Amino acid sequence: VNDLPGGPAVRQLDFQPAATRIAMDQHWLHSAMLVICGLICIAVFGVMFYSIVKHRKSRGHQPAHFHESVAVEIAWTIVPFVIVIGMGAMATQTVVAMKDTTNAELTIKATGYQWKWGYDYLKGEGEGIQLLSTLDAGQRAMSDAGKPEGDDYLLKVDEPLVVPVGRKIRIITTANDVIHSWMVPAFGVKQDAIPGFVRDTWFRAEKTGDFYGQCAELCGKEHAYMPIHVKVVDAPAYAAWVDGRRKAMAAKADDPARVWKLDEMIARGEKVYNANCAACHQASGKGAGAIKPLDGSAVVLDADKNKQIAVLLNGQNNGAMPSWKALSDTEIAAVITYTKNHWGNTTGQVVQPTDVIALRK
Amino acid sequence: MSAASQGSAPHYYVPPPSRHPFMMAIGLFFVILGAGQWINSHAWGAYCLAFGLLWSFTVMRQWFGDAARESESGLYSHHIDVSYRWSMSWFIFSEVMFFAAFFGALYWARAQSVPSLASLENALLWPDFKGVWPSDAPGATGAPGGLVEPFRTMGPWPIPTINTAILLTSGVTLTIAHHALIAGRRAACIGWMWLTVLLGITFLGFQAYEYAHAYSDLNLKMTSGVYGSTFFMLTGFHGFHVFVGMVMLLVITIRLMKGHFTPQRHFGFEGAAWYWHFVDVVWLGLYFIVYWM
Amino acid sequence: MSAVIHPGGHGAAHGHADHDHEHAHDHPHGWRRWLFATNHKDIGTLYLLFSFTMLMIGGVLALLIRAELFQPGLQFVNPELFNQFTTMHGLIMVFGAIMPAFVGFANWMIPLQIGAADMAFARMNNFSFWLMIPAALTLVSSFFMPGGAPAAGWTLYAPLTLQMGPSMDAGIFAMHVLGASSIMGSINIIVTILNMRAPGMTLMKMPMFVWTWLITAYLLIAVMPVLAGAITMTLTDRHFGTSFFNPAGGGDPIMYQHIFWFFGHPEVYIMILPAFGIVSQIIPAFARKPLFGYASMVYATASIAILSFIVWAHHMYTTGMPLTGQLFFMYATMLISVPTGVKVFNWLATMWRGSMTFETPMLWAVGFIFVFTMGGFTGLICAMAPIDINLQDTYYVVAHFHYVLVAGSLFAMFAGYYYWAPKWTGVMYSETRGRIHFWLSLLFFNITFFPMHFLGLAGMPRRYADYPMQFADFNAIASVGAFGFGFMQVYFFLFVVLPMMRGRGEKAPQRPWEAAEGLEWEVPSPAPFHTYEHPPRLNASATRVID
Ligand code: HEA
Ligand code: HEA
Ligand code: CUA
Ligand SMILES: [Cu+2]
């Protein structure tokens, strides 16, 4: 294994190298704290070990009898008090800077889903772009098999978040189901994503490159498998990316009114399945442990397609099966069609995007 | 019958081994097992819960019976009396903190979560939400998700006000009973105690009526968003405490009729009275904060 | 003791009860002695045995966690089960191991130290103990319920708890019962201390352990009901359609965190103040010098307790509090270092120019000061909001709290065990074994938890079943250390505790420690079943009985 630039290094002892001013300030504060605490430790434990060595009975040291001294006691109350006030004062400016999310050049909403991140470019260059960022399916399989490989193990996603270098980016976090936390160590950023509420944070990357983070709030069983990958690029590259992305979106945008054929739907559904469902239900469709099998499942085989659509839209078992309403109508229709016509399932049913739309409220 | 004179009481009475605590723990095991299963729709849980409660009450009867007997046979010195006073005060303090959690929730909902759900920022998620704490104004539900059916809120008039009067009166009657006990007028004391218990029961009756009214006429339910949640939890837990206090007073009244307590020594009476006053004070808080504000 | 006639009879409890003669030899025997106990020493023993069992269960869960994290990739468990392990490890250790163990110490020592015959409410005392059994059974058996044990972390954050299966309700009810047990136990302790001191034992002459427990008991009474409230709201949100934590109904998941941490932060001091008390007993005994700054110790303890109520949101820096909130909680949190520092300095001043020997209790106490202070400093670093943005929910926090909980609370308990167990059992432990236990535990403890600081700084989140490859080496080291540490605790049980319980070993004298002061050393070893049935007459410093 090698170090991962923008992510953790092997046997790393300190913070990941800072890529923003805020992170630099934080690291400076941390180093300052280490020094201060180290000095206090040396002083305090110096006294302690000196006394342990010298004031032993085995060396014939006779006990003194003092047991209070108002002056000393006042001194060692005041001095630490002054020290902690100093520490607090050092940190204050950085807290103020961290909280200042005004004047952002680009605003992006990051939504935590069980278990992936959705990004909407709300304001600034690239407005309107939406993407879902999921852990690369191969990584999850490696994890299950207990045979991890690669420097970006568990950090590789299908679609990274792309942002321009040197611009103030405001990230608005929220969540769809439970609390998640959007963290990128190199930026010195961590912000909980809370369902029903929005919170914000910001960063201005000083250099281009790939930066990695992971979800930092326990959000259920796949908590370890929803990484964050931010790709920081220079302005022209960003403009090009936005352009390409716009074109691709226009081209790919599925016409929800389109009527699909069975094999088209299955082919599309297989991709959706592998990217989203296989982590739990397995490629074999047999599920595992508490996860229900899809192969031969009554709901999947049911003649009433709405039953399965409802499960995907709303989730089941209190969210043990999460809601997938963040997927597009076409994707949901495709993946259902796939499950209805794969493994031992041969219903021949085709679910159309319009079926899904009908059940969405 | 009177408590024996100080001299014959042991310095500090330590009871002999007793099976009550162990038995009571068994009872509570069935209670929590049953309750946990019942709310997950296993019908047997209800029986288990009922059995556990029955068991626990039986044990409690025996336990308190023992304590009352010990008290009456003069084993409790002045020292123990003081212990009981301390313990009752700190028990009431713990109850205060329990209510504080729910008052805190109410404060948070009103001052923080509802306004911030309606803030400009949050318009991203709930564009149509107005963020008005429920009142009788149309559309003011305090809940943005559209999952709350329209409901009307519970005002202070008339039932809560009547109930306030009832509780305050009961505090007075209880104090009169106490003075009567101190003055050695046992019959009067018992009379005033019965009146107090009756007032407690009346309060509960009115509250039951109020709940029925909320559900059927106002469409105000536990599920009515955070208003309904805090309303029913606060008033519900208070009602439960009134019930407990009322039972305490009832037991004390029965003990009085059996001839327990003396004008000098009657901590059982006072402990129950403290509890009753505590319930009273919580109600005043509820009355102003939940119903008026 | 004067004649005691028992009113009313009910079965078994009175089998041995007709003790109407002086110094009733009503030493109950067999299983009844334990099930129906009203003796503070027996109940203390029950508490200690119970909490040690829970330490073992929680420890095995910790080892399962460490085994899974030994290498990247999933080896033994699936992530769902892993989260159950983490959650149950935290819950069992906090509510099953540490808190009851301190109550066990309180039961044994407080009546002895203040010259009281027993706890104020002997039956309720036993009830507090027996309540924990159904709660522990319910909690542990939740692994076998459909969907497995709760897996939302020991903090039980909403809305993840709303997704849990039926075991969550079992867990909630178990916590209610544990809370009731704690509240009753605390009331008992407070009343015992305030009302049952021997004449002459004034408040400011009480041993430090008694003082710290008095203050801890107040903390418990103030915050356990708040926890009960929080989880009750979780329960009604789960089953009765309330919206406390549901934004769609106007509620707020963050509200749960505020209520929880209003309990949770004082809770961590509940787990450390009695430890401070134990250490404050031991240091003077082995330095052969009175405790330095007794009064300031008392005030410092009280200040820690009071401050603990206004710092809770330092666990929530990343939830997006307003600026003023962050600053307030940052300053308030850092202030706690001042009274804690006063305690550390007082211990050092007690040692200073003493005449020290290093028997096992002293080793643990000095080890405690050293390692706990390191944990305190990492706490301080966490308290700095800008730094904590990087550290929150990473292994740095895991390292911090194991330094204060394992090297703090647990080490102090070991210190207290070696110090007082001769009085409990009448037998001395083996000094060699005690030393082995100490040095190897200290070593393995640091091997386990020191590397976690690096992991956290480098960004490894906690509650992760699997992690990027770069974190592998330190995780492997930590896992090895964990097994070593666990092994030492088995050693402790088999080679120190068990022989003492069986009465094997050198007979302990009444005063095993040359310079230990206090009323507990005024009674023989092992302490007789009944002690101080008549209030003793005390000397001026309330450390000796004069008759
Ligand atoms: C016994 C338990 C215990 C104790 C005593 C402490 C003590 C402290 N803790 Fe700790 N803490 C926990 C248990 C404990 N903690 C737990 C369990 C968690 C995690 C919960 C979870 O999320 O699951 C946690 C988490 C936690 C956090 C949140 C981290 C996060 O999640 O991001 C913070 C942040 O401020 C913090 C701070 C502190 C501070 C400032 C102290 C202070 O009290 C320390 C004071 C002591 C010293 C500073 C050392 C001695 C002093 C001197 C020698 C004097 C000289 C010093 C100076 C002048 C500075 N703790
Ligand atoms: C209160 C006290 C306490 C104690 C004493 C401990 C003790 C230990 N803890 Fe603790 N831990 C917590 C409280 C505590 N913990 C809390 C509150 C959390 C947070 C939970 C959460 O995130 O929700 C946590 C989380 C936590 C994590 C993070 C899990 C995660 O984030 O996913 C880890 C990981 O290493 C860990 C490890 C350990 C280890 C190795 C010990 C060791 O010290 C244990 C040693 C004891 C034994 C091992 C038992 C004795 C041995 C046997 C019975 C026989 C078997 C032994 C052998 C064969 C060798 N703990
Ligand atoms: Cu999402 Cu953890
Ligand atoms: Cu804290």
Structure report:
The complex is a heterotrimer of chains A (361), B (293) and C (547). Chain A has 361 residues and is of the alpha+beta class. Chain A has nine helices and ten strands. In chain A, the strands form three sheets. In chain A, strands 3-2-1-5-8 form a five-stranded mixed beta sheet, with no helix packed on it. In chain A, strand 1 and strand 2 form a beta hairpin. Chain A is elongated, with a radius of gyration of 27 Å. Chain A starts with 20 loop residues before the first helix and ends with a helix. Chain B is mostly helical. Chain B has two domains: 7-76, Helix Hairpins (Orthogonal Bundle); 79-292, Four Helix Bundle (Hemerythrin (Met), subunit A). Residues 1-7 of chain B have low confidence and may be disordered. With 547 residues, chain C is mostly helical. Chain C has one domain (31-546): Cytochrome C Oxidase, Chain A. Chain C is built from 16 helices and no strands. Chain C has helices at 30-35, 40-69, 79-114, 122-141, 167-195, 208-239, 253-270, 273-287, 294-307, 323-335, 337-351, 360-383, 385-391, 395-425, 431-457, 472-501. In chain C, helix 6 (208-239) runs antiparallel to helix 7, helix 6 packs antiparallel against helix 8 (273-287) and helix 8 crosses helix 14. The longest helix of chain C is centred in the N-terminal third of the chain and has 36 residues, at 79-114. The two termini of chain C are 17 Å apart. Chains in contact: A-B, A-C, B-C.
In short:
By secondary structure, chain B is mostly helical. Chain B has helices at 20-38, 43-72, 78-117, 159-182, 186-218, 225-257, 267-292. Chain C is mainly alpha-helical and 547 residues long.
